[in-house]
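Field reference: "sequence" (input) and "structure" (output). Example, DNA polymerase III subunit delta':
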Amino acid sequence: MAKNVEELLTLQPVVMKQLQTIFDKNRLAHAYIFDGEKGTGKADIMHFFVKLMLCEQPSGNVPCETCRNCKRVDSGNHPNIHQIYPDGQFIKIDQMRELIGEMKMVGVEEGRKIYVLHHADRLNTASANMILKFLEEPEGEVTAILLTEQMQSILPTIRSRCQHIKFQKMPRHVLLKHLQENNISHSMASTVSMMTNELETAIFLANDEQFALARKTVLKLVEAIRQNVHEALLIVHEEWLPHFKEKSEMEQALDLLLFAYRDIVSIKANPEAACTYPDMLPLFKEVALYSTYERLSNQMESILQARASLQRNMNRTLLMEQLMLNLQEGYTFV
């Protein structure tokens, strides 16, 4: 994943500029919350920021990478850095007690002390109250960095004492680049990048045979809907229903179906639009040519209604038969 400064700037340009400005103007706060979804680079940028704060000779708000402190941060052996991970389900009070004890000790190293709480939303009540007291009365040069994917689960009293650093989702073009660097085809990368923003999950989906089969079945159905309702119903009964037996599988398949119609709308508006299914461009251009925006909007609404009915445990066979009729209704043939 992203390691060097250029990659981090591409991944999170706003966050990087924010942290570099804080450092440049010597406005370091005593506590930060790094808030963002999995895959947004929180750990990598935390590593960069910690290294920048401890670097002996930073240049241009970038750590030098060669001084003793930079090398110790990279190796995980800097005595002034303490990282806490959940012990099981929670970060427990004994972990906080030990951390605070270490932070208050007069260490062999001068300079700033830094502690990092990974999954800070998993502080239990006792440990959260203990860290709250330490946040209110930090001793000396101390910086806390709390990493979380669930900002709302952190106590408001803790949130109010930390500077909030909001991480945005990975830009789709960056995710596509990483996927293609992992030898994933442009077509598959375009599809999985619509399903998830997290690189590891995207790579898993791209290499998963079940997902590849789902993608193929959905696109086959889109083509059949264009032909006639009988062909579409045949695919539903012979392929769709046997393949998508679990509710989660059906949800994913309906999402993939919705993305197909979104592609057609995008292509109708702009033939050069980026698509979820670039390998289907010739067919989608033809469908777009003979469809109206109103018709396409109704088709997407039908898919969304089917997804909602699935949540209400509607019979899946009836659900899909009704969806095929709704998608077929009013279709203009060529």
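DSSP finds 16 helices and five strands in the chain.
The CA atoms of residues 91 and 238 lie 50 Å apart.
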